[in-house]
Write a structure and sequence with these properties.
The protein is of the alpha/beta class. The chain has 3 domains: 62-199, FHIPEP family, domain 1 (Glutaredoxin, 3-Layer(aba) Sandwich), CATH 3.40.30; 203-280, Helicase, Ruva Protein, domain 3; 291-394, Rossmann fold. Helix content is 45%, strand content 17%. It contains 17 helices and 14 strands. The chain has helices spanning 2-5, 10-30, 50-55, 71-74, 82-97, 167-175, 183-197, 199-202, 205-216, 220-226, 233-245, 253-263, 270-280, 282-289, 304-312, 327-346, 360-367, and strands spanning 62-66, 104-108, 116-121, 124-130, 136-139, 151-154, 161-165, 179-181, 297-302, 314-317, 320-323, 353-355, 376-378, 388-394. The protein has a 4-stranded mixed β-sheet with strand order 2-1-3-4, with no helix packed on it. A 4-stranded antiparallel β-sheet has the order 6-7-5-8. It has a 4-stranded parallel β-sheet with strand order 13-12-9-14. A hairpin with a 2-residue loop joins strand 3 (116-121) and strand 4 (124-130). The longest helix has 21 residues, at 10-30. The chain is elongated, with a radius of gyration of 35 Å.
Length: 397
């Protein structure tokens, strides 16, 4: 067409037309048949598959959730070191309690307030608090200084009254004797104390099996004498949980297993075996309650008549013994113990209740709901060289 209708010579356009015609013919022969387009099928929703539904049932042992305002705590790009602190907490608890703390799940939650965080154990909330990232928490040494001002709050780990102070007030608070800590340290201390309080709930049969396999590498004969006969893995777990519930470290497993080997065939009550294990760990327990600055250990004791009343109220069953007191008797005895504990606290001493081995665990069960942090010890759990001074006697007629 260019050669016919334009001034371009036909002798120049004819070879080009011939080349294009042959090329088109060859390409047309090689082209595959065009398939009919099929509609795009949308993928099925993942929750419909059995495996994905099963994954939804998984519950993390420990969860730490926080509002979007606390994201800098966990974001390393913004200087956050929460992940490193969690690793150190797990190592610290392994040394202090002798158990492996499960992996802690850390995630943000837009349903929380911006500065709020929540700690969950087995999917249930156990503690909640708020932080101010641009402030410091100042805790009073006992005598408040009116010149120190800030936002009133409560220290989450121990429930102490505190103030959120800014950078300008921080130095003045330190000079006045206040204990000043930064927000990451507040979170670390809170998380550590929560894990200590709920360590007995985190010790499952799987973790118990790991501990048994670990001690079996160095003490195979001892482990064979204890489990699976006369004690099953579940029985060993219950004994360890009773110890952890009262913050007694189970790191010295060989001593505990020696006790289980001696008394496992005699008693089937895990609480009773835990009591004998505590007596075997007397040196460890004494070190935990011994005053750091030296001097005697101030305690609250129970009178002979009070211990006799408790012993007479014990009821024996095939599953162990329990304390059968009337509500009036229980309340009267608990109030009397609480009064003596308060007197000891006002003296500036850490309260300790001391009683005979026969009633120790029952006294602990009586007061643990209202005074969970007060240790109850028996005479057999303290070393003979420790000086003890009784500053109060519980005497319930």
């Amino acid at each position: 067409m260019l050669g016919v209708f334009t001034p371009i010579p036909i002798l120049l356009t004819m070879p080009i037309a011939l080349f294009l015609g042959i090329g088109g013919y060859v390409l047309d022969r090689k082209a595959p048949e065009v398939e009919e387009e099929k509609p795009i099928e949308e993928p099925e929703e993942e929750p419909t598959t059995p495996n994905n539904v099963t994954d939804l049932l998984t519950i993390d042992p420990v969860e730490f959730e926080f509002g979007y305002g606390l994201i800098p705590l966990a974001d390393s790009n913004q200087g956050g070191d929460l992940l490193d602190r969690v690793v150190m907490i797990r190592r610290q608890l392994a040394l202090e309690l002798g158990m492996i703390v499960p992996v802690i799940r850390i995630r943000d939650n837009i349903q929380l307030k911006p500065n709020e965080y929540v700690i969950k154990i087995r999917g249930n909330e156990v503690s909640r608090s708020e932080l101010l990232l641009d402030h410091y928490m100042a805790m009073s040494p006992g005598v408040d200084d009116e010149s120190i001002t800030g936002i009133e709050t409560v220290e989450p780990a121990f429930g102490l009254k505190a103030l959120w102070v800014d950078d300008l007030m921080k130095d003045e608070a330190e000079l006045s004797g206040y204990t000043v800590v930064d927000p990451p340290s507040v979170v670390s201390t809170h998380l550590t104390e929560v894990l200590k309080n709920y360590a007995h709930e985190l010790l499952t049969r799987e973790e118990t099996k790991q501990l048994v396999e670990h001690i079996k590498e160095t003490h195979p004969t001892l482990v064979e004498e204890v489990t699976p006969n006369p004690l099953s893995l579940g029985d060993v777990q219950k004994v360890l949980k009773h110890l952890l519930k009262e913050k007694v470290s189970i790191r010295n497993l060989p001593v505990i297993f020696e006790t289980l080997a001696d008394y496992g065939s005699m008693f089937k009550d895990p609480q009773m075996m835990a009591e004998y294990a505590r007596q075997s760990l007397s040196r460890q327990i004494t070190k935990a309650v011994k005053p750091v600055q030296g001097g005697p250990l101030y305690v609250v004791t129970l009178s002979g008549s009070t211990e006799k009343a408790i012993a007479d109220a014990l009821q024996q069953t095939e599953h162990g013994s329990y304390l059968s007191l009337t509500p009036d008797q229980s309340q009267k005895m608990m109030m009397s113990i609480q009064e003596e504990v308060v007197k000891l606290t006002q003296m500036g001493q850490s309260p300790v209740v001391l009683c005979s081995p026969a009633v120790r665990m029952h006294v602990k069960q009586l007061i643990e709901r209202f005074m969970p942090h007060v240790p109850v010890l028996s005479y057999n759990e303290l070393e003979p060289d420790l000086e003890i001074q009784s500053v109060g006697v519980v005497n319930v007629a």
